[in-house]
Amino acid sequence: MSRFRERIRSRAQKARKLVAKRAPNKKRVKPSxxxxxxxxxxxxxxxxxxxxxxxxxxxxxxxxxxxxxxxxTYNVHRWTGLNGRSDPDPARACFVISELDAHVIAxxxxxxxxxxxxxxxxxxxxxxxxxxxxxxxxxRHGELGNxxxxxxxxxxxxxxxxxxxxxxxRIAVAxxxxxxxxxxxxxxxxxxxxDRTRHRQVRELLEHPQLLAGPAILLGDMNAWRRCKxxxxxxxxxxxxxxxxxxxxxxxxxxxxxxxxxxxxxxxVVEVRAHATAAARRASDHLxxxxxxxxxxx
Length: 298
Description:
Number of strands: 12
Oligomer: single chain
CATH class: Alpha Beta
């Protein structure tokens, strides 16, 4: 356990040092000021953000939104498996996603290749799920970003730029779902490694309209390897998870850190667990986390 905690602590310390390097006038650089420079350096595809919203290729029977739903969050590690050193093999993680049988699934570190078949679109079609994808940055193999998969049509989809440092580009994808006169807001994200940056991101997220307009869920890779200002802010604002312990989800082979979490507002998380099957332990360096969420009666 100590080895993995030290590994995460080392990564965070390195990130903190890089973030602390400022221009000579000590002015803090705003994300909006960084965006044009990032486009020049990384090319026009790097910051396309909201890249894809689509329904499954074959129309599916409408799914009712019951009072209890199942949601999941899963960092798929660029489809590269447990150690991250192998070539992308989407089939492993896609099989795990099919095991989850969730109504809504948030995915992080999703790689969409620039050439050939898109595994994310293929997955959505095979499972009959609606899909929204937003690119965080360019990877040598394609676009890397966050996605939401859903049994319900995706409405009012948007992205939120959470890039508060020059080191890490981060975003959130937000959507609203409606079915049988019920409504649910979902915000999916992948937060920063540095505590200070993560706290700023959480403050920004908590003001998002989708978390303020009726029942809502915030889920994703929170990178909260210890209790910090960000997690305390989430616990105060997102009250729908009383007395629940977050299940360890990282590293997948022998999880000790609860990085992947599901928070609720105007709804209640009644159960949360890691999906620790044999396939899940090999498909990524994170385990998926599943939560049973109870929505208010219509």
